[in-house]
Amino acid sequence: MSINLDLPEELENELCIEASELNLPLSEYILRILSTRQVLANPPKTGAELVAYWQSEGIINSRPDITDSQAYARQLRHEAQMRSKL
Fold it and tell me: Is residue 39 within 8 Å of 56, Cβ to Cβ?
């Protein structure tokens, strides 16, 4: 479906800036905002609901290259500590 909207210039500028910060085309960013409106109106209330939401959004298991999350976290922490010593 295609819809034409006449947005106020200020709102269009704000959306363009937000989209560019995420390296997304404006149309894709607006679609993303509209698709998350249900979650914003009814946010997850339990840990299980939050995990289910993250799974549905593809966040969980989005990094198959990380096989040991605890070792990866230790590595990141070590790298951050080494940067702070420089």
Answer: no
